[in-house]
Amino acid sequence: MAEDIQQKLEKYRTAPFDARFPNQNQTRNCWQNYLDYHRCQKALDAKGVDTAPCDWYKSVYKSLCPLSWIEKWDTQREDGTFPGKI
Amino acid sequence: MAHQAHAYHMVDPSPWPLTGAIAALLMTSGLAIWFHFHSTTLMTLGLILLLLTMYQWWRDIIREGTFQGHHTPPVQKGLRYGMILFITSEVFFFLGFFWAFYHSSLAPTPELGGCWPPTGITPLDPFEVPLLNTAVLLASGVTVTWAHHSIMEGERKQAIQSLALTILLGLYFTALQAMEYYEAPFTIADGVYGSTFFVATGFHGLHVIIGSSFLAVCLLRQIQYHFTSEHHFGFEAAAWYWHFVDVVWLFLYVSIYWWGS
Question: Heme-copper oxidase subunit III family profile domain: from which residue to which, for each copy (chain B) (predicted)?
Fold first, then answer.
């Protein structure tokens, strides 16, 4: 299972089609993957397990999200003002 | 002596439409003057002129209908159409604010945390004062119907009592809502939640006050024997308006207070 994830991450080119977000506006896609990465990190850290699988979400949001959004959200998380539930 | 050969009402020339238009001009420009030059004189003048216009115009309609007999059945039919069309236009007015609410709440943006209520907003408990408010308005709908039947059946005392009770319930709603506004943990400036909540419920509250005033005028008229058991359109118009206000509240309660929490 972990090898598959590694292979997936190595083969990564860009965010694949996600049927949950089929339309032109991909805001929710970016937002969801950003949340999922940080939730994954938090959950696997709490269990003391390797967080490598989480890097998939990171690759996706890094492909999709505008850099300014990522910077803004990272700053908000540091300040404790991030509005999303992680 | 010439008499009209038709049942319609050719209204005598009246200055009130002009004073009403002037009032509208003074209030709008007065608002702009207030915003930019910190003076409320023009706007206050407009407000006074508006109140005078409303008082005198509607007083004249009462004179024409109740005292001079100009409100024949076809004339009354026209008044009915008028009130229905006006209420319909108000329905569309509120529809806009409901559209705004659903636009923002069905697909909450990342800025809100992707959730509704937005992150940081503690909504009011729909089963506390808002539920009481619902009961108050529903009860007032019953009492206004009671008043109508009393008028139709010539029960003068009951009509006065039930109409007064309706108005008291309206005032009770207003008082409760004012207290809720004062005590609320969020303000109109708190993002789109605050905006949609206070603009929608605020305009509704204004309509409750207008409706209560309309009913109060009807109470005074009932006391002064204006209404007959067959002809009391002023009261019917007030009752329709009151039911409309009640229905708007029900939609507000279910959408914003209940689903929106």
Answer: 4-261
